[in-house]
Amino acid sequence: xxxxxxxxxxxxxYSKPGAxxxxxxxxxxxxxxxxxxxxxxxxxxxxxxxxxxxxxVSEGKDAAERAKSYDEILxxxxxxxxxxxxxxxDLLTKGFYQEDIQLTSTAYxxxxxxxxxxxxRYLRQVEIDSPRYIxxxxxxxxxxxxxxxxxxxxxxxxxxxxxRASATEVEELFKKRLDFIEQLxxxxxxxxxxxxxxxxxxxQIVMSEGVVENF
Length: 215
What we know:
The protein contains six helices and four strands, in the order ααββααββαα. With about 220 residues, it is an alpha+beta fold. The protein has a domain at about 75-215. It has a four-stranded antiparallel β-sheet.
């Protein structure tokens, strides 16, 4: 049996016998992975400061836009900035805001903002009376809201409880104001109620969302 003839290199091949074939050069450099710069405490601090500055600028623009639109809202409703400021200050410091409203050349009315307890009292009364018609519910609301907000009418003043007053005293003072309202002519109560509705609307506009940021 003849021995196998050892393989001989092919003509034109520059690799040694048994070596892996070489890939022909294409004239381009191999792609090298670019490493990201290493995160350092100093770099993190700089990046954080820059992000904070961008956020502050953005929030400053937003606040300016809100203030501008708020001033426009006040102007559209004929509310001066000084009056709006007085309402905000009184509500935040005193807990209520009150205002004298001229009815005639000789008669005036003084109203004040109500507390959440006043609203709850109204809801309790609605539950007790269980009105069948919406007009009945509106009538209860009118009497209870006017009595809760009434401070003075044609020179007659009505006391309101302090923060330290007992629940009994609070209800007694409210009952006196409610009794007075129920003895007035129906048209007079309707007039006071209309003035109260305008008063409430002004306070609601002034105390719109984000109001504190505008002062």
